[in-house]
Amino acid sequence: MSRPYLGIYDSGCLGVAYIDLNGFKLINDNLGHDVGDSLLVALSQRLLVQSRSDDVCFRLGGDEFLILFKINHHQHYQQEANGIGRKLHQLLTQEVQIEGQQQPIRVGASIGIGIVPHDDKDLARVIALADNAMYLSKTERQPYVLVADMEASVSD
């Protein structure tokens, strides 16, 4: 594992954002894979430039990303996670101008956010929960869903 990841994990409170781009397949199908690849590069650069120095960003494949981030205020982890969800959604849904395209391109984003140790103590389990929250975000057409909110709505 990389040093930034270990530092975040050792912080005691780790956030996981599981991201899927909405409408990306249409861009690939209608504008070509070169345009889709350029869009992924532009969005990746945007995430890297705007992320905090100790955040770790991964492209999982296709149009899915995973971001690990440190929660700075453990007692207010949900407010901090909400703020990060809003920021990520805003960053990813802004227009992108791709060279050779007359019009800027915009995609949507569905984001699921889980927190270690609040949602589970096992990182792999929290990633799976964040993936489930991302799918709920997509089906409910919400910008992002916290695992804690997802579990609360299931128990209602």
* N-to-C span: 39 Å
What best-fitting shape do the alpha-carbon axes yield?
Answer: elongated
Helix content: 40-55%
Mean pLDDT: 89
The structural class is alpha+beta
Strand content: 15-25%
Largest sheet: 5 strands, mixed
**Any idea what the radius of gyration is?**
16 Å
Total DSSP E strands: 5
Count helical runs.
6
Quick gist of this model?
The protein is α+β, with helices and mostly antiparallel strands. The protein has six helices and five strands.
List key phrases describing it.
156 residues; 6 helices; 49% helix; five-stranded mixed sheet; alpha+beta; single chain; disordered N terminus
Q: Could you characterize the architecture of this molecule?
A:
By secondary structure, the protein is an alpha+beta fold. Helices cover 49% and strands 22% of the residues. It has a five-stranded mixed β-sheet with strand order 2-3-1-4-5. Strand 2 and strand 3 form a beta hairpin. Helix 2 packs across helix 3 (33-50).
